[in-house]
């Protein structure tokens, strides 16, 4: 396959090149991050600070930090309460297409996996959105596989326009694009852009992303900055924990968000914390173990380092874990989730295969009740357009 020879650090034609030093800073600090050097004393010092520095963040993510999980969780809960009160935000993702031109070896949607491919047309998207809106949700996350050919920017823009009719907040998790394209999608109604970097270790990244535009590491890493330049209100960050050294990846994710927050103070920052899940037609992926305590450590470290950031807990995690982290460190939870194409309208045929298996299949009502039962307040939206 000729594409496999593409240099993953070289931009492809048409990809916007930003004058930005954010990537270089993130990568060099991540490589320099020696988590084994941190001691219990470093962690205690970090916990005692009112505002935590990057060095504190590094200590909290270290193995030494793992010994203080209970204390980290207690303080994270305080910070969450301070910045978000009782609120837990609810949303649902809608997959509108699963065509993908990339070859990510860990993903069921990859271009070499023989799955049912599908793409919803405008009418189908509207029906799906109507069905979702009926559940009371006011925020939607629109997802596609990464195919510019099958899901071009105009198609995504039209979906945003439809979404704006039914929802107050529209997020996007689609392929990275140039800032003028983000500007267009913002005009169509999108507020947020999330891009998973997967891993910040570019050598590892190269071995996991064998073909397609996603292979180009720096173009992906600079997507959030291009989205902010395009006028998006907020950006989301994530490493897929388990692909590589999760401590380094979590450190790089936090640092990436922190540097962009400093450069664009108005930006709303969000973290997602996905771990690898089993996918169809692939039993060869062997995730590096990130168990629940490690995941909790990462989530609490994000909260203590950037207390005002939104943290989403996805349905990749089980009901028990999700219910335990809301209000503690997570502030946003998805509900009524399907990762297939066209699955919210009961009479409609489910057209495309799912991207990954989900562990929490509860409906919107069930998640709503679960939030309330913990003495928290389910919130559909807190943003008003005037
Ligand atoms: S992770 Fe995203 S880009 Fe990669 S194969 Fe899956 S859908 Fe495509």
TrEMBL record:
Gene3D superfamilies: Aldolase class I. SMART domains: BATS. It comes from the Bacteria. InterPro entries: Aldolase_TIM, BATS_dom, rSAM, rSAM_sf, ThiH, ThiH/NoCL/HydG-like. Its cofactor is [4Fe-4S] cluster. Its EC number is 4.1.99.19. Residues 272-378 form the Biotin and thiamin synthesis-associated domain. It is an enzyme of class 4 (lyase). Keywords: 4Fe-4S, Iron, Iron-sulfur, Lyase, Metal-binding, S-adenosyl-L-methionine. GO terms for molecular function: 2-iminoacetate synthase activity; 4 iron, 4 sulfur cluster binding; iron ion binding. NCBIfam families: thiH. PANTHER family: 2-IMINOACETATE SYNTHASE. This is 2-iminoacetate synthase ThiH. It comes from Clostridium muellerianum. The lineage of its organism: Bacteria, Bacillati, Bacillota, Clostridia, Eubacteriales.
């Amino acid at each position: 396959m000729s594409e496999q020879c593409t240099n993953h650090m070289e931009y492809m034609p048409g990809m916007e090149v930003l004058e930005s030093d954010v990537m270089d800073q993130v990568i060099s600090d991540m490589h320099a991050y020696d988590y084994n050097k941190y001691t219990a004393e470093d962690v205690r010092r970090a916990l005692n600070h009112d505002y935590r520095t990057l060095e504190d963040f590094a200590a909290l993510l270290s193995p030494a930090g793992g010994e203080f999980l209970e204390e980290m969780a207690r303080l994270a809960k305080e910070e969450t309460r301070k910045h978000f009160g009782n609120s837990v935000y609810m949303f649902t993702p809608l997959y509108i297409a699963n065509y993908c031109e990339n070859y990510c070896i860990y993903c069921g949607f990859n271009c070499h996996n023989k799955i049912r491919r599908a793409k919803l047309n405008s009418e189908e998207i509207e029906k799906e959105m109507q069905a979702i809106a009926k559940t009371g949700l006011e925020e939607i996350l629109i997802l596609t596989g990464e195919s510019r050919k099958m899901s071009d920017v105009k198609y995504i823009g039209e979906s945003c326009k439809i979404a704006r009719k039914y929802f107050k907040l529209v997020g996007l998790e689609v392929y990275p694009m140039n800032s003028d394209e983000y500007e267009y999608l913002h005009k169509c109604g999108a507020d947020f852009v999330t891009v998973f970097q997967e891993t910040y270790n570019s050598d590892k990244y190269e071995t996991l992303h064998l073909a397609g535009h996603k292979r180009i590491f720096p173009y992906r890493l600079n997507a959030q900055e291009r989205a902010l330049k395009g006028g998006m209100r907020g950006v989301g960050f994530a490493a897929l924990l388990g692909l590589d050294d999760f401590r380094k990846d979590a450190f790089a994710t936090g640092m990436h968000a922190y540097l962009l927050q400093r450069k664009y103070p108005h930006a709303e920052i969000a973290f997602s914390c996905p771990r690898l899940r089993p996918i169809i037609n692939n039993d060869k992926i062997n995730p590096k173990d990130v168990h629940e305590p490690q995941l909790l450590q990462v989530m609490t470290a994000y909260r203590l380092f950037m207390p005002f950031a939104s943290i989403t807990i996805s349905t990749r995690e089980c009901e028990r874990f999700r219910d335990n982290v809301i209000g503690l460190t997570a502030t946003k939870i998805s509900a009524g989730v399907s990762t297939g194409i066209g699955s919210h309208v009961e009479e409609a045929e489910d057209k495309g295969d799912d991207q990954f298996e989900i562990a929490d299949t509860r409906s919107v009502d069930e998640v709503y009740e679960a939030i309330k039962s913990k003495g928290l307040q389910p919130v559909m939206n807190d943003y008003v357009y005037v």
